[in-house]
Automatic annotation (TrEMBL):
Domain Integrase catalytic per the UniProt entry, residue ranges: 1-157
Pfam families with a match to the protein in the record: Mu-transpos_C (PF09299), rve (PF00665)
Region ranges (Disordered): 260-289
GO biological process: DNA integration
Organism, scientific name: Hydrogenispora ethanolica
One MF annotation (Gene Ontology) recorded for this entry: nucleic acid binding
InterPro entries given in the database record: Integrase_cat-core, RNaseH-like_sf, RNaseH_sf, Transposase-like_Mu_C
SUPFAM superfamilies in the record: Ribonuclease H-like
UniProt-recorded name of the protein: Mu transposase-like protein
PROSITE patterns in the cross-refs: INTEGRASE (PS50994)
Length: 289
């Protein structure tokens, strides 16, 4: 849901914030709700993870057809956690009626929050948390026979399904496809990673933590996940040995080119026959030579 404008942009410029909530379908209980400074898939992932951390993994999760929900990442994450992924039918407003009704209730909060003039996202979320507990979660709901969402949620006898933290951590990693090149490597974020020669030409799933991409996890059907290490060219090559002093180039003290030219010139002069000089020939008495 679109939220208010807050002075959280560059140099205090006003920037719109966005509300993301995860709600239990049967009881209308909000598992987690929070305002975020941007509108992309990252905020959905964060809110989803916090809801699972608080109340465990649900049997199914229901989204509308927004592009931020229909992602390859969401399909992988739900599969890892054993959650059935369901999407609303296109052009069916009634399919998301409960969420739309909650959003209308949130409008009353936004009107009150405007009077408080929050200057930061943290303050807005603090106000929202208090309002959510006192004005929604614990208030009677007409769709729950007068029970509050909190009471209805806690009345469910079914146990919550909490997952191993490693499973949740793995499920919320990012995933992208890459094709293995002829050297058994993939390119990722401008770097080369070793995958294996047996996967040349295959398209693999690259699972990674955006905060640390020095090591990637590779997933391929029929194989256990494995680590792809960043390829450092020349890391196994030793330091080049120094050349023996006897064959190392010596600093030049004079021009070898000019010295060679001088030797060649002297040799050329010695090989050239002297020209005949008639001045050295005596003339005979009659004047003939």
């Amino acid at each position: 849901k679109y939220g208010p404008y807050l002075p959280i942009g560059k140099d205090g410029t006003k920037k719109q914030v966005y509300l993301v909530t995860f709600m239990d379908d049967a009881t209308r209980y909000v598992l987690h709700g929070q305002f975020y400074p941007m509108l992309d898939r990252v905020i959905v992932q964060d809110c989803f993870r916090q809801a699972i951390g608080k109340y465990g993994a649900p049997e199914a999760v229901y989204f509308d057809n927004g592009s931020q929900y229909r992602t390859r990442w969401m399909s992988r994450a739900c599969a890892k956690m054993g959650i059935r992924l369901v999407f609303a039918k296109p052009y069916s407003p009634e399919a998301t009626g409960k969420v739309e009704r909650f959003n209308r209730v949130v409008d009353s909060f936004l009107a009150e929050a405007t009077l408080e003039k929050p200057q930061s996202l943290d303050k807005l979320n603090e106000l929202f948390g208090v309002w959510l507990e006192e004005c929604y979660q614990n208030k009677p709901h007409s769709g729950l026979d007068g029970k509050s969402p909190r009471t209805a949620y806690r009345s469910d006898p079914k146990a919550l399904r909490f997952l191993d933290p490693e499973i949740v951590g793995s499920a919320f990693l990012y995933s992208e496809e890459r094709k293995v090149d002829k050297a058994g490597c993939i390119s990722f974020d401008g770097r080369k990673y070793e995958v294996g020669l047996s996967f040349i030409g295959c398209t693999v799933d690259v699972v990674y933590d955006p905060a640390d991409i020095t090591e990637l996890t590779i997933e391929y059907e029929g194989h256990q996940p494995w680590q792809a290490r960043q390829l450092n060219i020349g890391e196994r090559a030793g330091e080049r040995p120094k050349m023996p002093e006897r064959i190392q180039p010596l600093p030049a003290e004079s021009s070898r080119l000019l010295a060679a030219a001088a030797r060649q010139n002297r040799q050329r002069k010695n090989e050239t026959a002297p020209a005949i000089s008639y001045r050295t020939v005596r003339k005979e008495d009659d004047g003939h030579v």
